[in-house]
């Protein structure tokens, strides 16, 4: 019955529609039930969308947290790299100073089968010196002993 429908009773009270006209209007009980089912379905979809939005927001917060952590880690790594670069630069300057001091100290000493020490042959000269001091038993003749002693005297004043 339409007696419970607020629209039907309101229209009936005003006397605008007769009982038959009320039944023929779009406010029939079946229409109200269909609209009620649609509303329930829409409410269900709204609930599902709200739940999905909540999950997406939680995932977004988690991603933002991870991004923030990664940015902090990156900043720390960049600071560490800067410190390492500064240390490397200081070590390079120290090495450059030591190599210049070694070149100056050994400028007058000639190794067998080598040109006098210079920046161009510095690595080869140092490798030869290293070999001479590592394998001293190979350099036991008096000439080589004098050479090793003169090298020791030449580099004695270099501060490392």
Automatic annotation (TrEMBL):
Q: Where in the cell is it found?
A: Nucleus
Statement: the UniProt record of this protein carries the keyword Coiled coil: yes
Task: Write out the entry's keywords from A to Z.
Answer: Coiled coil, Nucleus
Q: Which domain of life is it from?
A: Eukaryota
Would the keyword Nucleus be found if you checked this record's keyword annotation? yes
Q: Coiled-coil segments, which residues?
A: 32-94
Query: Cellular component GO terms, alphabetically?
Result: nucleus
GO molecular function terms noted in the UniProt entry: DNA-binding transcription factor activity, RNA polymerase II-specific; RNA polymerase II cis-regulatory region sequence-specific DNA binding
Name used for this protein in its record? MYT1 factor
Q: Which organism is it from?
A: Erythrocercus mccallii
Q: Please spell out the taxonomic lineage of the organism that makes this protein.
A: Eukaryota, Metazoa, Chordata, Craniata, Vertebrata
């Amino acid at each position: 019955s339409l007696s419970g429908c607020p629209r039907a009773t309101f229209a009936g009270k005003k006397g605008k529609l007769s009982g038959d006209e009320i039944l023929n209007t779009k406010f029939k009980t079946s229409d109200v039930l269909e609209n009620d089912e649609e509303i329930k379905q829409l409410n269900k979809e709204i609930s599902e969308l709200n739940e999905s939005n909540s999950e997406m927001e939680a995932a977004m917060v988690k991603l933002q947290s991870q991004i923030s952590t990664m940015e902090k880690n990156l900043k720390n790594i960049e600071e560490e790299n800067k410190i390492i670069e500064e240390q490397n630069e200081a070590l390079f300057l120290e090495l450059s100073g030591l190599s210049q001091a070694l070149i100056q100290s050994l400028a007058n000493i000639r190794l067998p089968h080598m040109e006098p020490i210079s920046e161009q042959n510095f690595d080869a000269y140092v490798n030869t010196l290293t070999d001479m001091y590592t394998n001293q038993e190979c350099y036991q003749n008096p000439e080589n002993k004098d050479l090793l002693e003169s090298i020791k005297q030449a580099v004695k004043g270099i501060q490392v």
